[in-house]
Amino acid sequence: MTLTKLLSCFRCSVIEVFVKYLIVYPKENPLGKRLLTAILLCSTSLAFMATSFQLLVDYRSDVSGIELRMHEIERSYLASMGESLWNMDSKQIQIQLNGIANLPDIPFAQVKDIQGQVLARAGSSSSQFKTFNRTIPIQFIADPVSRKTIFLGTLEVSATMDRIYKRLWDKAFVIFVSQTAKTLLVAIFILVTFNYLVTRHLVTMAAYVRKLNLSQLSVPLVLSRKAPPQTDELDVMVLAFNDMTEAIKRDVSELTEYRTELEELVIKRTTELAQKISELEENEERYRKLVEISPDAIIVEREGKIIFVNSGALKLIGADRPEQLTGMSMIELIPSDWHEIAQDHLEKLLANEKELRPFEAKMMRFDDTVIDVEISRSFFHDRGLLAIQTVAHDITKHKHYEAQLRTQALHDALTGLPNRILLMDRLEHAIALAERGNYAVFVLFFDLDRFKYVNDTLGHDAGDQLLKIITKRVLQCIRKSDTFARLGGDEFVLVLGNIASEDLVNQLLSRVVSAINESIIIEGQNITMTSSIGISTYPKDGKDSATLLKYADTAMYRAKELGRNGIQHYSPEMLTHTSEYMAMESRLRQALENKEFVLYYQPILDLRSGKIIGAEALIRWQHPEFGLLPPARFIPVAEETGLIVNIGEWVMHAACVQAKIWEKAGLMPIRIAINLSAQQLFSPYFEDKVKQVFVDTGLSPHSIEFEITETMSMKDPEHVVGLLQRLKAIGAHIAIDDFGTGYSNFGYLTRFSIDHLKLDRSFVQNIKNNLNDAVLASSMIGLAHNLGLSVVAEGVEDKEQLTDLVAYGCDEMQGYYFSPPVPPEAFAEFLKGNKSLDLSLKG
Ligand code: C2E
Ligand code: CA
Ligand code: CA
């Protein structure tokens, strides 16, 4: 029972295995199928060849067996057959034939007589397959001695292959079946083994590879099998796989690192960019606001059409809305006679000319009035197009003041005569003409004798009247082309140009002298004036205006020395060989060595707070014989001899030392103003000396202000512009001294780096009694403010002057009203006592 069950089970599993490995497995595993086919083909053909060979051999031996049987029949039956036939014993023949036909593979035998008649037969000759027939002669040995034989008939035997073929078929069948079964079993065995050893691992590998992703790279491929004793192909595969994943892992981690870096970089760049953009936006916003609130007119053109104007521009041009201007071109706003200048400037701008300065031009307003403007332009690229920004600044007022200043600043207010500036201009002009025409020019320096006496006894008004009368008389006796100028006080200069002979000079001179000497009645007094006259000549005495004027002055002094009311022609000895001059020069040198110079300090006050905010250092000479000498007594000689440079250095050093002392005493910060002479300013060592002084004294340059005059700076403006910039760069301040007595060129002033304008004493003095000077003073203050400079009024002597200056908006003052220059100790007392200016001016 159990056995049959077991058997059926076994059959079942065998069938299963067959189905699995011969039908299903090959379908799912093409590799197995091919292997199976190869095994089957190969094994079948081998089996076929072996079987065929075996069958061939069997067939051969069977065939030879038949042959052998024929021989046996011949050997054993033929003798007895012959005897039976001799004896005609047909019964015996039949028996013998039956015996033959009973032999295996012999189905039929018959005996024929000599005539061929069948005597007897046994078996049947019907055969499926081939038959072999043998005809054997039957003989009878008649005489055994002579072996004489008698032929009796024939025995015919048929042999058949039926049995042999059948056996061969059976055998072939058995072989085929057993071979097939064996082959199948072997194939299955191979497949199972192949599956166990290879295929399932291939499947594992495939699954592994299919599952493989970046996160799983660190899980290595492992096959579920016992490690083979020797590394096999699968191991090599696994190793190759794991090497590959390892390499991928490495690459991936490198890539990841790179990616992180890239990401960080991108984040960094993005933040930077965002920041830049926001900064740009902020800047743009700030710029926009600036542009909007700028009092200057700002106009932007692109491709020759206005695309933007600020409110300043609307105001300047008198438009209400920007649309009135947009679409127009800038040139339409400029009168045609200024087009060339504007175009020229634009070309220079586009050619990137360095240090292109703003230019002055005119602009037309919407109400058809024309205004003066200063235009500066710049260009940039806006969306790939050339855009030009014009900044226009209304300088109409400025121009007006300047023109006013020019005429007024060139003439003496009292007499209307040219002043020193115009005189120098005319003199230069006369020299230029004379140079070309080979003429001479005469400079006559007049100084009225004892004018001070008239002033003191009869009063200033009488003095002024006297000057006016003399002026009028002199003008009547000179030619139109001659220049008669007043230098100040009682000093006049007559320039005679275009002179062919000296006779003419003498004629003119005697007329002028008698005009001066003619008696004058003032306030009931009969006055006779005399004058001392010095004369210098171009080209004999000098080639330039300054020299000629100086020499005429020197000659005039000589005339005075020689007892007044005389005329002196300049000669070189006058300058250097006057006893006074020579004595002075050597004394000045000694004074420097003997430390006879001292500095006095005059307070400078702020007009808003009334507090002391600075001091001007003014030199004095403590002369052992003559006492304290003012600069007017020795500075001109110092200038003449060049000693001023050394004296100036001493002043600079002494002022800085003093400032440092006050700083240490806690009395600073105030600024100390130091006067510079032209020779210092143009000395090549000047800058080094300045720096050295600050190093030596340890004082900050911020505490120092250098005072220079306009006249000095005009000698070489380019040099001075640079020098002042460098002085400012180290922190020092700059003031223009005696402003209003020189060129009063505001245009130039803008190029200098200046902090303060010091309004000359002469303006301040006349504020209250000369309307002209009052207007001038106030307009100069206004203009200075326009340029961002603050104004110091010099020589303020009384309350009225102060009141007016405050009303004009003046920033600072300096003058006897508060204090004359005082020794340093006295100045320190001011600072300690907080002495200040009383600004409660009404009352
Ligand atoms: P400044 O630079 O114009 O100096 C101002 C002058 O005006 C001083 O004369 C001062 O005493 C005087 N002053 C001040 N307040 C009044 C006032 O209310 N009324 C009047 N009538 N005068 C007043 P000071 O000290 O005689 O100096 C004369 C000139 O000498 C100075 O003119 C300056 O050009 C020159 N100077 C003085 N010290 C130096 C120096 O250290 N170096 C150089 N190179 N020049 C100097
Ligand atoms: Ca000064
Ligand atoms: Ca001055």
In short, what is this structure?
With 843 residues, this protein is an alpha/beta fold. The strands form five sheets. The chain has an eight-stranded mixed β-barrel, surrounded by four helices. A five-stranded antiparallel sheet has the order 6-5-9-8-7. The site of ligand C2E has 21 residues, from strand 18, helix 16, helix 17 and strand 22.
What's the structural blueprint in terms of helices and strands?
Layout: H1 2-28, H2 30-86, H3 90-101, E1 108-113, E2 118-123, E3 131-143, E4 148-160, H4 162-211, H5 233-293, E5 297-302, E6 305-309, H6 311-317, H7 339-350, E7 359-364, E8 370-382, E9 385-394, H8 396-409, H9 420-437, E10 440-448, H10 451-458, H11 460-476, E11 483-488, E12 491-499, H12 502-517, E13 520-522, E14 525-527, E15 531-538, H13 545-561, E16 567-569, H14 572-577, H15 579-593, E17 597-606, E18 612-623, E19 627-629, H16 631-641, H17 644-664, E20 671-675, H18 678-681, H19 686-697, E21 704-709, H20 710-714, H21 717-729, E22 733-739, H22 746-749, E23 756-759, H23 761-766, H24 771-786, E24 790-793, H25 799-807, E25 812-813, H26 824-832
Parallel strand pairs: 15-16, 18-20, 20-21, 21-22, 22-23, 23-24, 24-25
Antiparallel strand pairs: 1-2, 1-4, 3-4, 5-6, 5-9, 7-8, 8-9, 10-12, 10-15, 11-12, 13-14, 17-18, 17-25, 18-19
Helix pairs in contact: 1-2, 2-3, 2-4, 8-24, 10-11, 15-16, 17-19
Bound molecules: ligand C2E and calcium ion (CA) (2 copies).
